[in-house]
Amino acid sequence: MKKIIGLFSLMLICLVAGAQNIKVMSGSLAPLKGEKSVSTSFTYDNLKVGKMTEQDYVSDKIKEYNSKKAGSGDQWHQNWIKDRSSRFEPKFNELFDKYLSEKGIRVEDGAKYKFIINTDFIEPGFNVGVARRNAAINLTCRLIDTSDGSQVALVMIINSSANSFSGTDFDSGYRIQECYAKAGRELAKFIIKECKL
Questions:
Q1: CATH code at 21-53+87-194
Q2: What angle do CA 98, 191, 147 make, to 5 degrees?
């Protein structure tokens, strides 16, 4: 019995240690209460990828892919940049809007308040069939009042990690996209809880 309790405790600790964490670092989300809309924009300033700067990571990947097939590294780089606007940001907004709209707040341009969401860290993860590591992202979300640009709140999202239970997430863009989806969903739920919507 002690072994079972010990194993359960260990599993719980591992689950909590790997869990996504959202914290208000300064200010308050309370001004969103009563609002009918909120907007978002995305930045990638000082991005780290794994243990590297984004610049070093991209440079290594371009060389690696081009050494296997000429031009494939350059194509990979184009996809790496394009995925931001075509996959990551829309997926975040889709889930952010889905959950907030249940409480009467839509994600749309021209709102009084805007989240400026900076991606601080990406762990692309991998899936090679016999071994895998989930992707994860860290985001800094600044809520600003668009009328004067003042910061209303600063929210950190740490270790937003999602996995595909089907095990078919061989594409790093897909793995990262799902992390943004989870971050959007969880930030919306956090706002709903914090603002008692």
A1: 3.30.160
A2: 95
